[in-house]
Write a structure and sequence with these properties.
Elements: H1 14-23, E1 24-25, E2 30-31, H2 33-36, H3 42-57, H4 64-77
Antiparallel strand pairs: 1-2
Helix pairs in contact: 1-3
Length: 82
């Protein structure tokens, strides 16, 4: 299994600290791994979060559940385990 270095959540300061409330999962109280890998580059984390929010809530043509189902099918087709 690959291991990617990250900044531990309890050490997030400055720009990274400002991102924390935007990316923490309120249900589990932690940052998902897919976002945590951006912790060494807060600008890339902000860009990733902006892209995600746009994709999941950018238009009114699909409900959130439909967007999630599309994301699931795409992940399955790409053999992605997220």
């Amino acid at each position: 299994m690959a291991r990617i270095e990250i900044v531990p959540e309890d050490s997030w300061e400055g720009d990274l600290g400002e991102m924390y409330p935007k990316v923490v999962d309120p249900t589990y109280g932690r940052v998902d791994n897919i976002l945590a890998i951006h912790s060494l580059n807060p600008r890339s984390m902000a860009a990733h979060q902006t892209l995600y929010m746009s994709a999941m809530a950018g238009t009114a043509t699909l409900r959130k559940v439909e967007r999630e189902l599309i994301a699931l099918v795409v992940s399955l087709e790409n053999d992605c385990h997220y």
